[in-house]
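Box 3.1 A note on notation
Throughout this textbook, protein chains are presented in two layers. The first layer is the amino acid sequence; the second is a token string describing backbone geometry. Keep the layers aligned when reading.
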Amino acid sequence: MRILVVEDEEVLARAIVEWLRREAIAVDVVHDGEAALERLAANDYDVLVLDRDIPRVHGDEVCRVVVERGDTRVLMLTAAAAVRDRVEGLALGADDYLPKPFAFVELSARVHALLRRSRPAAPPVLSRAGIDVDPARRTAFRDGAPLPLANKEFGVLAELVRARGTVVSAEMLLEKVWDEHIDPFTNVLRVTVMKLRRKLGEPPVIETVPGVGYRIP
């Protein structure tokens, strides 16, 4: 899961990013519409958290571009709470609308709802090979026993379970679980998978496909 936050209030932007990263979501952040369009052209995002009133390129125009592409869900933020403003935002094609100020728990709930809509229909709890992962509640179990996972371990496991037996490349895992600042040549993924395997216990469930990536068959 990877999202882009576009918010010109840097303190608020930082708080949103920190909150979502605690939930094992990879988050990039920019502070104006021009930078947002550049990131959207370079990367694939599941959800865009978009402040409507941003400099350089207005949030309305950013929303129009994203809607035309049709591959990213849009959660629009604004300080204007009037019904007319909400209707205008949704009329632009935004999938959801959240007026400021908002509770971070509501923000994350709406992001998770959009993440589910951005993918093919899947049950709220993902299951494979005796493993159950609930992305919304951020819980994971193997054969009924809870798994005490760090954020990145949880993110990797969720992506592997979600893949339903297909191979997930190392590049895709880095893109979905980490953010744009990750060094593509780092060994952080290998170390995370090693720790995850240890916590999952026996018998081994994560298979390495040499030169390709990982899967849970």
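The chain has two domains: 2-117, 126-215. Residues 104-117 form the longest helix (14 residues).
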